[in-house]
Design goal:
This protein is mainly α. The protein has one domain (about 5-55). It has helices spanning about 5-25, 25-35, 45-55.
Length: about 55
């Protein structure tokens, strides 16, 4: 996957999760957070950054 395509996908993914998080119930918010932090393809620093973008 090209770097520009990856960047687009990442921004889209964060945007969707951000909208779901702000409209979600407590349980749905917890599920979103769990899914981000269980993602094996991200480093701990990336997980923290993604989480910050989602809750902002």
């Amino acid at each position: 996957m090209s770097n520009s395509y990856y960047q687009y996908f990442k921004e889209l993914w964060v945007s969707i999760l951000n909208k779901q998080y702000h409209k979600g119930t407590i349980s749905e918010k917890r599920t979103i957070k769990d899914n981000v932090f269980k993602n094996v393809h991200l480093t701990d620093k990336q997980k923290e950054r993604v989480w910050e973008l989602i809750i902002s």
